[in-house]
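Marked as duplicate of an earlier ticket. Keeping the data here for the record.
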Amino acid sequence: MTDMDRQSRTKLRLATTRLFTLRLRDEAFRAKFAASSGWTPTSPIVPCEYGTLFGEVYATALPALEASDANVAAIPVLRIKDRTVKLHVLTVGAKGSDDDATISIGINSINHNVTMGQVIETLAPNKTWDIRDLDPKISHQLSLPD
């Protein structure tokens, strides 16, 4: 991976984190998300792109979970396709959830060689936020690659 690739990935992950934290500012969303997923303000956030291998996310999320008092980590996943930006979010925990409404799974139950896109498509294909629905100012400022 070149320095330019690393810089691009870093910028995408910073943008992903920013979009997710902007969404969390909405009190109604935050309350609903916390109730359905077990997310708390101390939960680690591990941003990634759609093509990131789960093993890479695991290597970051597991130590973050172990170092915190949170039960789950939030994994915002950025997808750019056909000049459309979507943000998917799932939560992973050490044990997962028994609640059918929660998109939370045990972090050890996912194959490390699958992409986050495959995880999202399998677990929650309809759980997406179109970037334009999050904040019109942000989506206007975001420049998409050709």
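See parent ticket for discussion. The CA atoms of residues 24 and 30 lie 5 Å apart.
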